[in-house]
Specification:
Length: about 450
């Protein structure tokens, strides 16, 4: 069978919209939002416009506007438009939704997705290869009739608002620079750099020459960095999306240590959620991180790396109320990090242990652990400094030193505002409220 090329209607235009009403697509002047029924229209069989199909249409439109024929295979389409899904799953999705090529114009005004059909070929065990819409695919509308603002396209494709950025250049250099900004506490700038890298690895020729595992790791690393930055900034909704996309890609690439890191980010982000009680979900995510670390190489699952994940589990257990279990995990993480001369992490686990002591009512032990954390810290990075300032305020409030606690609470708030750390601000405001209530007394 040949290409279905006789269907196009000259007056048919397509416009992609990312306005306040949510992502949508306008076809021949008719605006269709998510949930719109496309059955028996525009080359589809029974079909609804969902997020997945909209991302597919957006990616095909972007490829068509790049110039050339704009054809793409199922593997590329699945990877970039469906977060690392397999080419087989994408081909099956489109086979169920696309109307079979008829070689003539449809009465609805044309096909949004054009494809090369393939004949069914019997397999050795009775299965079949090919299928009537196994691709390759392209947007059926010529580039001159596609209205797609690049920022709208990226927002739909990546599932987040994408502002214009001045970052450019090599992806690895951009990511390294973003990490340096994060260590210095410039999280907003670091996030812009990570998003710029994300656009680069999803478009152009940066990753198309890569295949399989290498491509999944490169894109996954970019999503993972973004999730870490958004965790520090307290943007739990965006961060969860990024962490889960990273985990999907790392699972596809079979890199258990990276999967563990993605689960760790998800554990922290679930702990920040404000729309319900997700403490036990956070504990489960931390356990999953440790479980996947056990599947990695012997070198990666030993020593400081293992201590790090056990410390995260201890932190999550503490917030979920298992104070005894948390203490065991945090003490082990602290001792292992200290023995390995990983002093910054030893300081963090000492501070987390002080928080656990406060929850258990062991104020003297909390003061001791806080002192130890402060002694270990010489030049803390931005995230560690924010934690230590806040824990210092917590210990002073718990020990009744309210006048000493007040400047530390104010400093915790200031650090949060200066660095755009929304979760730090929320926690510092709770401390301020607690401090005022204690000053006011029962009356």
């Amino acid at each position: 069978m040949g290409r279905d090329s006789g269907w196009q209607v000259p007056e048919m235009f397509v416009r992609f919209d990312g306005g306040p009403g949510g992502p949508a697509i306008a076809i021949a002047g008719e605006k269709l939002g998510l949930g719109a029924d496309l059955t028996d229209r525009f080359g589809f069989d029974e079909c609804m416009l969902d997020h997945r199909l909209l991302r597919v249409l957006t990616y095909l439109a972007m490829r068509r506007r790049e110039g050339g024929e704009g054809w793409t295979d199922a593997d590329e389409l699945a990877f970039f438009a469906d977060c690392g899904a397999t080419g087989g799953s994408m081909a099956k999705l489109l086979e169920r939704r696309l109307r079979e090529v008829s070689g003539r114009a449809s009465s609805e005004g044309g096909r949004l997705i054009e494809y090369w059909p393939r004949e069914n070929v019997a397999g050795r065990r009775g299965g079949r290869f090919g299928g009537r819409s196994r691709g390759p695919y392209r947007m059926g509308i010529p580039a001159s009739r596609i209205d797609l603002d690049p920022h709208v396209g990226w927002s739909i494709l990546l599932g987040r608002p994408m502002a214009e950025s001045s970052w450019c250049g090599d992806v690895e250099a951009t990511l390294a620079s973003a990490r340096a900004h994060a260590v210095a506490g410039r999280f907003h700038e670091a996030r812009q750099g990570a998003e710029s890298a994300l656009r680069a690895v999803h478009g152009g020729d940066v990753t198309r020459h890569l295949t399989g595992r290498d491509r999944a790791v490169m894109v996954g690393d970019t999503w993972a960095l973004l999730s870490t930055l958004e965790m520090e900034m307290g943007l739990w909704q965006e961060g969860l999306l990024a962490a889960r996309r990273a985990r999907t890609l790392f699972t596809k690439a079979r890199t258990p240590a990276r999967v563990a890191h993605a689960w760790e980010s998800e554990a922290h982000l679930l702990g920040q959620r404000e729309d319900g009680d997700f403490r036990f979900d956070s504990v489960a995510a931390a356990r999953n991180a440790l479980l996947h670390l056990e599947s990695s190489s012997r070198e990666l699952r030993a020593g400081p790396r293992r201590a790090h994940h056990i410390g995260v589990l201890g932190q999550r257990l503490s917030e979920a109320g298992d104070l005894r279990g948390a203490a065991k995990k945090l003490v082990w993480a602290l001792r292992t990090a200290h023995e390995a001369a990983s002093l910054p992490w030893a300081a963090i686990w000492a501070a987390r242990l002080a928080q656990n002591d406060i929850r258990a009512g062991a104020i003297a032990s909390a003061e001791k652990n806080l002192t130890f954390a402060t002694e270990l810290t010489r030049r803390p990075d931005a995230a560690a400094e924010a934690l230590l300032v806040r824990v210092t305020a917590e210990v002073m409030i718990a020990s009744g030193r309210w006048s000493e606690a007040e400047p530390w609470v104010e400093k915790a708030l200031l650090v949060g505002h200066q660095r755009g750390m929304q979760h730090q601000i929320r926690l510092a405001r709770r401390l301020l409220k607690s401090l005022k209530e204690r000053h006011r007394g029962p009356g």
